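Data availability (excerpt). The following record was deposited with the supplementary files.
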Amino acid sequence: MRPASPLLLAFVFAMAAAHAQQPAPTPTPTPTVPSGERVLDTAVVRMPGPGLWKVRKGDHTLWVLGTVSPLPAGMVWNSARARAVLAQADAVIGAPSVAVDADIGFFGKLALLPSLVGVRANPDGRQLNDVLPAPVHARWLGLKQRYIGRDASVEKWRPIFAASKLYNEAVRSVGLSSRDVVRTALADTMKARGLKPVAVSARVKVANPKGVLKEFKTAQFADRECFEKTLDRVEHDLPALSARADAWARGDVQALGALPNPDLGDVCERAMLGGAFAAKYGMDSLESQARAKWIAEAESSLARHRTTFAILPMNDVLSRSGLVAALASKGYVVEAPGEAAANGDHIAP
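Predicted structure:
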């Protein structure tokens, strides 16, 4: 599941600060895995992961590693192929991202802290049973009891935040983790080579963060669809998530392409970016700007460097509307891992 929206990224530090001021929740017992679901092994050792996609212009090459999340918890990725490319790479391109800046400095952030408390809460003190239809709330209560437990504080949250909490606990219960296996494994190699990923980011600066936070607390968002889709995923798609994680770990690209992708990102982004609040502050176009910047950076790097390495979500590698397909539509030669190997491009064992 991708982050719910660029807007949520803007408030990551806010939520963390607010959480730090609240008492820690009472630990809950590990949820029981429902019948029919399986827990992935949590000590997977040296799994190969998928091969690398090759985007070519003449003798200049962009090697792309597709990632999925979540992955098996505790897995150790055999990163030899990716590290072999990094050993030759002239540049590394990060995945497109979005950010909301507030140029307020350290003391400004301290002054902002009182405004951060309750940023996740529904406006006017309402609870989930006040903003959701009764049948939807009943479904939520059953899944909450199964995966979250008795924590009552989540009942005060906006649906999109409650959905995120439920999703994260559910995937953890079946042996999956959102830990960034790829970046952790490649960090030392990039540092040794002096390679720093080019940050491809669309940004907007907020001049009055305290006022924006105050407005956010009372703004209305159409996040019920995101909430209901999350319930669907947790009820029905955990096996698909486990299968995708397992396919990535084994490097089974064919299975990755064939499996349904239970990705909630688009639905939840529309919930947060489709309203007046996001449009008012220029957040509604950040994602499209970031994707356009990534294409421009990839083309520039292909023109300037013999070897470039990039990491992208697997959707952007496999989808017909993804970033790799966008490069193919511009005339670049794209080869999937098996095709690159067949053409003699043996980067690593």
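Summary of structural features: The CA atoms of residues 83 and 189 lie 7 Å apart.
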